[in-house]
Backbone:
């Protein structure tokens, strides 16, 4: 699975990230860290159980990653699907964390040789990251998608 991107949605990670960004000392990083913390607080206030549920999603992700790395794709698949469902419900369908979960799920399908199921997930993730103007992610996804089309 693709490595997890820095995510602000998990409260414990956000606190550590905020401290790291403040230590870097660049104004742009500090603004980004403050924005991330504000985002976490917004989710927490909008849905008090969201932080716990997102923590559970992280734990599911970690378990699915271990299963993936052990080559147990069919065991990892339902866990990755649960992560996607949780993130879509709490963060909305166009959030970049949802896009990353779509890519993780697509990677599992590719590992099982189920490319026709991976492609729509990659296409949806591509749209999410295009909308977010994440050019590096768009380039990487487009490259992976081209490889999937050729299989």
Residues:
């Amino acid at each position: 699975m693709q490595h997890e991107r820095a995510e602000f949605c998990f409260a414990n990670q956000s606190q550590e990230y905020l401290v790291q960004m403040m230590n870097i000392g660049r104004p742009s990083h500090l603004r980004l860290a403050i924005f991330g913390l504000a985002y976490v607080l917004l989710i927490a206030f909008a849905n008090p159980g969201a932080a716990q549920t997102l923590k559970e999603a992280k734990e599911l992700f970690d378990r699915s990653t271990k299963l993936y790395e052990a080559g147990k794709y069919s065991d990892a698949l339902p866990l990755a699907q649960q992560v996607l469902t949780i993130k879509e419900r709490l963060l909305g369908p166009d959030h970049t964390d949802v896009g990353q979960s779509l890519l993780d799920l697509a990677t599992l399908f590719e590992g099982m040789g189920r490319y026709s199921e991976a492609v729509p997930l990659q296409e949806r993730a591509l749209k999410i990251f295009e909308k977010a103007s994440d050019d590096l992610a768009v380039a990487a996804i487009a490259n992976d998608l081209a490889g999937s089309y050729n299989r």
